[in-house]
Amino acid sequence: SIKMSESNSFTSHFVELRSRLLNSLIFIFIAFILSYIFAEQIYNFLVEPYANAVKDEENSRRLIFTALHETFVTYIKVAFFAAIFLGSPVLLIQIYKFIAPGLYKNEKRAILPYLISTPILFLLGGILVYYLVMPLAIKFFLSFETIGSKTSLPIQLEAKVNEYLSLIMRLIFAFGISFQLPILLNLLARIGVVNSEYLRKRRRYVIVIIFALAAILTPPDPITQVGLAIPLLLLYELSIFTVSFIEKKKHDVLRFQNHSRACDVGV
Fold it and tell me: How far apart are alpha carbons 237 and 232 in whole angstroms?
């Protein structure tokens, strides 16, 4: 009877999880359809950093495509990118609703800030790419153009639509995911894997790891690499502060509980 009850409970939880994941996928699919309908507007938004970076130049700039299907595939990628961007918060909410019934009230309060912070930090990473990193990177790459002379041909950029959009979307995801560092470290601190002292002592190694990670996730240029590494270092320092705050709060709660027990024993 107990085994039957446990089996039914597992089945019901599995069915609920499948239902919530299916709801998230349906939302992402609907978002994909709507994003494809407005793919040209989304494309114009993503191209704006490039357009703004070159608008004051004398040379007329354009984005080209070299295959018949390239623009169509690009719009599909743009729609998929927008659908994942819009659907991720919905997926997080569905996962939270699935695990929330099994949590105590204080545990729900503890996990809620992480649920809110995750999309906010991802959005901040995307904003940094869109308004700062991409314009600087474009200017950097354009600085390698040459006018040419009688003995040499000019070197000019003819950017491809697909390659440009793949670059900016990859950077937005790379920065957005990397900006989850404080969430990860705080969760590890809550379950006792790391503490603030451990994070302080490993700072020099983390600096090397962050710059190596930035070199892997970004194009081979110093602008985007430094543009990712410096915010991550700042977020790491912020993580040390927040982990210290969590430890202090835990210590205060434990001290209050011990004091309460001591008073009960005295009575």
Answer: 9
